Amino acid sequence: MDDFTGSAVVDQPIRRSANIPPEFETRVRQLVADWGAEKSPELIEELIVTALKMARDKMGTGDLKLMSRSLKEMRYAAKIFAPYRDVRKVVVFGSARTAPSEPEAQQAEEFGRQMVAHNYMVITGGGDGIMGAAQRGAGRENSFGLNIRLPFEQRANEIIHGDPKLINFNYFFTRKLNFVKETHAYALFPGGFGTMDEGFEALTLMQTGKALIIPIVLIDRPDGSYWETWMRFLTDHLLKLGLISKEDFNFIKIEHDVEAAVQHILHFYRNYQSSRWVGSELVLRICKQLTAKAIAELNKQFADLLRTGAIVQRGALPQEKNQPEISDLPRIVLMPHRHQFGRYRQLIDAINLAEVG
Length: 357
What we know:
Elements: H1 22-35, H2 41-56, H3 61-81, E1 89-93, H4 103-117, E2 121-124, H5 130-138, E3 143-148, E4 166-169, H6 172-182, E5 186-188, H7 193-207, E6 216-219, H8 226-239, E7 252-255, H9 258-268, E8 272-278, E9 281-286, H10 292-301, E10 306-314, E11 331-336, H11 342-353
Parallel strand pairs: 1-2, 1-5, 2-3, 3-4, 5-6, 6-7
Antiparallel strand pairs: 8-9, 9-11, 10-11
């Protein structure tokens, strides 16, 4: 996903390594050059220097194993996702215990089928139940499974089992990171602790500005009350106690109809394409240029978001030169306050509805 479009990446200059003798930096730089690192060799250099620093930090073997294994998992997962970088994806969460005959499983299967029809791929935790149903609808060729090794047997569902796009993780945190950084939308069906954990994780990252805004749709059977019950907990307790803000509800949408859930995700990308932080500026890439009247209306409607300046429309920033494939897209650029991120979702919705021309 663009710039970890699951996370708010801020462009910063590469810092030269501190406390490393110049002769070691020279040797590291030469090693990277000899290896043939073509893309961002300075970042490869930083990784090597970090590893060298760890050798002098007197870390325990356990810490070194944790860091080594985590990096290996992250590298392997990135390698698997790389060929599909330009394909939008949706993560489906839900109970592994849901029987195939249950309405929620049938909805998940239909959801996977419809998202693939709109050129999306489906990512799940690789298990049975809701996850297996969603991947059955999507088909093996359009599915990723991010499985977790557990003390008890955790076999992947039959759809993704044995597929190269099934990735087995030892750590939950590396698995979660890949859910976040690779998806363009979340679809949550009724589930247990795992579903709640993943859902609140996504909400927390968006609420705090650590992840860029993407759709979160909560899907339940037509006569179900699972998500309404959950929503009452949020409104009757968290909101009333002042533990969350009313703007946080902009991140989520409850749907009981699969087609409506699919359309909610598709509408989010009606004109909006992706986002990126460049320093303190938020850059929103769009597919079609907005009219001057629409820009004026955005400035009027979202003046409270602006820390300074105005919402403007322009071309690509110089700092975006590493993404030439989207350099021709128009940009909406603003310098916003770093809070009330639920309002950012409203801004994206407004851009999608704005007049183009």
